[in-house]
Amino acid sequence: ATGPSRRTGAPRAAAGAPGEIGDLSASRDQADEALGLLRAELLGERVITFDEAWTALTLHRGATAAAGAKVAELGPLSALRAHDETGKAGYVETLYEWLRHPGDPRAAARELRIHPNTLRYRMRKLLELVPLDLDDPDVRLALLIQLVALRWS
Predict the structure, then answer these.
(1) What is the pLDDT of residue 132?
(2) Cα–Cα distance for residue pair 61/135, rounded to 1 Å
(3) How far is the C-alpha of 86 from the C-alpha of 131, rounded, in Å?
(4) Which of 66, 83, 117, 123 could cross-link with 71 by S-S, CB 3.0 to 4.6 Å?
(5) Are residues 30 and 94 in the same domain?
(6) Both ends of the chain: CA-CA distance in Å?
(7) Residue-number span of the structural domain to which 117 is assigned
(8) Quick one: pLDDT at residue 114?
(9) Mean pLDDT, consecutive 10-residue segments, the chain of 153 residues?
């Protein structure tokens, strides 16, 4: 399947899994799904196969289901979102990158294009605003599901 990026108009192409002639419809559906992620620029590539896109597809499907269940409205995330809407701090994005790079503040800071000390400062302020037990793996997973739902759906 081929199509332009929604934002830049650059060409994109995706392929479904190879299979027998009777599987062509399923392969086309896979290609269309992968192409949708490419066109939305949720992947950095311009060409991808369905099998190569499995992580992004898993996140997107999970985010779509989580968004439908309104998981982002649960718990303390709404307070962080409200704070960010005032134009201050970028706590939601900071938390997202901190969770994506566990134990590596330099990598998280690099993604945010800030200094690691700025990341640490934001995390400290974020936790003052919304107390979270980030040592609890279930809390981290729940937050990551919420953040992925916001970002990908």
Answers:
(1) 94
(2) 27
(3) 20
(4) 66
(5) no
(6) 22
(7) 71-152
(8) 96
(9) 69 84 88 85 82 88 87 89 87 96 95 96 95 95 91 77
Distance from C-alpha of 100 to C-alpha of 116, rounded to nearest angstrom:
15
Cβ–Cβ < 8 Å for 50, 31: yes
- Whole-angstrom Cα distance, residue 101 to residue 96? 9
Q: How far from chain centre, in Å, is Cα 141?
A: 13
pLDDT at 43: 77
State the Cα–Cα distance between residues 132 and 76, nearest whole angstrom. Answer: 8
Same domain, 100 and 142: yes
Indicate whether 86 and 136 sit together in one domain: yes
C-beta of residue 37 within 8 angstroms of C-beta of residue 23: no
Q: Is residue 145 part of a domain?
A: yes
Q: What is the pLDDT of residue 111?
A: 94
CA 36 to chain centre: 15
Cα–Cα dist 27/55, whole Å: 18
Alpha-helix residue ranges (DSSP H) falling in 40-115: 54-68, 77-85, 91-100, 105-112
Residue 6 pLDDT: 64
